Amino acid sequence: MTFYLSTYPRHLTRRWDMRSSEPQATAHSLPVDVREEDDAYVLSAFVPGLTAEDLNIQILDDTLSIEGEYKQDEAEYVLSELPGGAFRRTLRLASELDADKAEAKIENGVLTLRLPKAESARPKVIKVAVN
Q: Which CATH number fits domain 23-120: 3.40.1010.10, 2.60.40.790, 3.40.50.720, 2.60.40.1180?
């Protein structure tokens, strides 16, 4: 069996890199980390430069929705890698959430949400009586 390997010339690679820096669609997703604890989910996401007023967080049953927008200026850049435009992330978690007890904070550009599970979704401990 014969394998042929063809590499792209360097000048084509450079041209593709230039194309990738062109403005893309403004709507994009927000990457998150979710950790499960016994009684809650803890979500972390990077939101550099945003404040609490820039975010809209909604909880409905087992669904979490986070919306926001990075402000964009009209300056023309040689290289632009900072996030820009609107984003929306909707997550459906494994159990229902207690929206009234949810907590959110932004510290050093990191959004942290503590999402307590609803009473019906928490594990029940049943003790067995010994005779």
A: 2.60.40.790
